[in-house]
Amino acid sequence: MPSYRPLVLINGQIQQLPLGATLDAKIQEVDAVELQAKQAMSAGMAVYVSAAYQCQLADAADDAKATVLGLVLGAVASDAYVTILTDGVLEVTDWTDAAGSAALVPGSFYYLGAIPGTLTTTPPASGNLVHIGQALTPTKLEISLERPVKLA
């Protein structure tokens, strides 16, 4: 059976991994996208992508706006470009604009709230149920987005 050696960068040059050498690297997945914000947004707010490929605040009451792309990484003004974290852990020092209080409740699950862009620990009674993630600490939320579920 033939043996294959991966290609690696050594001193800026592409070379085969030397015989007997091993690869040892920290693996970290961070999924982020950058889009133009159609409106002002604060860190931690939930957004969706409009038909014009702009991000806007997600809305659980509106079926067309309930599919959450991710959470805003930092505050931006309208028409500015914003980084949106679609997976991973988001750390925000003050969650007031996004979740209604400065700190998250560790261990609690967060859902898309009744006010566009906001998060809540109370699942909505009508509209769309959209799971956003779980608080790990008062400042960190693990993002685990799910598709909207239409409520009666």
Run of helices and strands: EEEEEEEHEEEEEE
CATH architecture name = Beta Barrel
Q: How many E-type strands?
A: 13
Overall domain count: 1
Tell me the β content.
35-45%
Distance between the termini: 60 Å
Unreliable spans are none
Q: Sketch the major β-sheet.
A: 5 strands, mixed, barrel
Explained architecture:
By secondary structure, the protein is mainly β. 3% of the residues lie in helices and 37% in strands. It has one helix at 96-99, and strands at residues 7-10, 13-16, 31-37, 46-49, 54-57, 70-72, 81-91, 109-112, 119-120, 128-129, 131-135, 140-143, 149-150. A hairpin with a 4-residue loop joins strand 4 and strand 5.
List the helices and strands and how they pair.
Layout (H helix, E strand, L loop, with lengths): L6 E4 L2 E4 L14 E7 L8 E4 L4 E4 L12 E3 L8 E11 L4 H4 L9 E4 L6 E2 L7 E2 L1 E5 L4 E4 L5 E2 L2
Parallel strand pairs: 3-5
Antiparallel strand pairs: 1-2, 3-7, 4-5, 4-6, 6-7, 7-12, 8-9, 8-11, 10-13, 11-12
Search tags:
152 residues; mainly beta; Virus Head Decoration Protein, Chain: A; five-stranded mixed β-barrel; two-stranded antiparallel ribbon; 13 strands; 37% strand; elongated
Task: Give the gist of this structure.
The protein is an all-beta fold. The chain is built from one helix and 13 strands.
